[in-house]
Predict the structure.
Amino acid sequence: MTTLESRSNLESEIEMVERQQREAAIGLAAPVDEPVQDAAVELKGVSVWYGQKQAVGDVSLRIPRNKVTALIGPSGCGKSTLLRTMNRMTDLVPSARASGEININGVNVLGDDIDPVQVRRAVGMVFQKPNPFPKSIRENIAFGMRINGYRGDLNPLVEHALRQAALWDEVKDKLDESGLALSGGQQQRLCIARTIAIEPEIVLMDEPCSALDPIATQHIEDLMRDLAARFTIVIVTHNLQQAARVSDRTAFMLAEHDLVGHLVEYGETDRVFRSPRDERTEAYITGRFG
């Protein structure tokens, strides 16, 4: 490479760094790693309001297929709102509305002509607190398959879902007992089995371990890593150690002066935690705020 070419490349790199610093300083750019090539979900300029109050502002990111992506950030930064918008759960709040695009297999699921029920079949949800139905373990799993029109023998499918959720060996002899009789960790794995039984493409998890003890939490974390081979998983968590342990990519969100949640930084989890590119990310990860 000639001296002239080297100088030109150096000047280009300096200009790029200076531009990124200017943009980050005024909150226009979210530092990112290399682009996601195979995205299961692509968000473009997603904003969410509850009435006149904006909760999420202009979030764009690509979520990789068959990986675990973590959304982190302090309370009130819009993580759970953004997660629930991905499968139209925010539609259940009368005052909520969303703009932008959330593309799954090339279809914008926020489109007016899209049936939210169909979206939720493709994008399952596991909530913060275990919420099994007041039915037997078997019926908890079979319920979703029945309402989706399956009329065959459900028993093999029930077993398959429970095995995927690493629960079969613990409940195989009491499938007709109430799901409410299980421990908290078992109930959460039952809810995961119920979610994946209808074979969604994407599984959203909103603080799935916050109500569990450390041993049950480890079971769920191990399960998430196993399930990522078959499903794309997006998790909201306040537990930074958990995000570091289970996720492949991490998105850090923050609500600052305007009290609207924005994406600050997004990238490979190891990079975000070891060498964050935004000082706000570093301050949050090191415990200086949040």
In short: The chain has eleven helices and ten strands.
